[in-house]
Specification:
The protein is an alpha/beta fold. The chain contains 8 helices and 12 strands. The protein has a single domain, classed as Spore Coat Polysaccharide Biosynthesis Protein SpsA, Chain A (Alpha-Beta Complex), CATH 3.90.550. Strand 4, helix 3 and strand 5 (108-114) form a beta-alpha-beta unit. It comes from Setaria italica (Foxtail millet).
Length: 348
Amino acid sequence: MKLNPLLTVLSAAAIGFFIGVSFPVQITPKVFPLSFGDGNCTFGGSYILGRLSTAFRNSTSTVEGTPVLQPNATSEDTPTRKYLLVLTVGYSDKVNVNATVHKFSENFDVLLFHYDGRTTEWDEFEWSKEAIHVSARKQAKWWYAKRFLHPSIVAPYEYIFIWDQDLGTETFDAEEYIKIVKKHGLEISQPGMDITRGVKTYDVNVRRNDTEIHTSTSVGKCSEDVHKRPCSAFVEVNAPVFTREAWSCVWHMIQSDLVHGWGLDWNFWRCVDEPEEQIGIVDTQYVAHHRGFTLGNPGNETVDGSRRKVRLRASAEFGMFKARLNNADKLQAAALLAQSGAATPTQS
């Protein structure tokens, strides 16, 4: 896994926005008080907190805004589970989320980001009582990921699943999935998309019936050049799975002042050494993306918060993100050129 130098440049450009102080954050009270920025908050879910708080205590990170346990916080030593499932949810998603969680074994911890502020209602599910619940109203999953999934926090986990809440997982088995990605050495992956039951965005992510995994496609427009994104080495943002090493790189690429995360998937390749070998689609473990674009309120498309307005903002942020990456690429290229020139002896 590589940490591209331009990601350091890109991350540094946005670090001043890290906390996002303009967004009120409420973390559901249950057990552990935390100091986060200028406010006092608590995480919900006592069972998982023993593991997450260990990461806080052991971390030497000085990133501005990283949650720090207060001195009076204590925790029991609990076995570290191997993997982490992260879902951004509203209570109206409970049926599908419950079905999804049951596809993941006891080797997984579960973390729910609540965009509607409703957390205690989830205790009707036994698994929810051992999950961690973070509530911050009206945000998107990459906004949460930047603030609560710092690499030092999720370091105990071999794989991190950061999934949408509307995936159909009837045919999915998480343990089998892990076996396959380990077998093929995939650093960033996703299950194949079953378009007989759901929607598709890109041809490369559609499930194939003749392979265990695939890393590229020649279908449709991709017949012209399979060695480009999104035809090769491409995983969507709706159901990505990262190794802890790959996630450490991706986390630095997420921009703190941008909400929607559009464009991240077009740049995941920057976080592995061999994109066409280490980024792939698992065909034998597949899901369906049921609803497609769901952010925003349906109805009047002229008001703030409508789906049209949300999509327009997401598109604008995509442009900003691309511009920052282009600038970072240019800065990196200039720095490398200057370094190369300085290392070249002058001719007499």
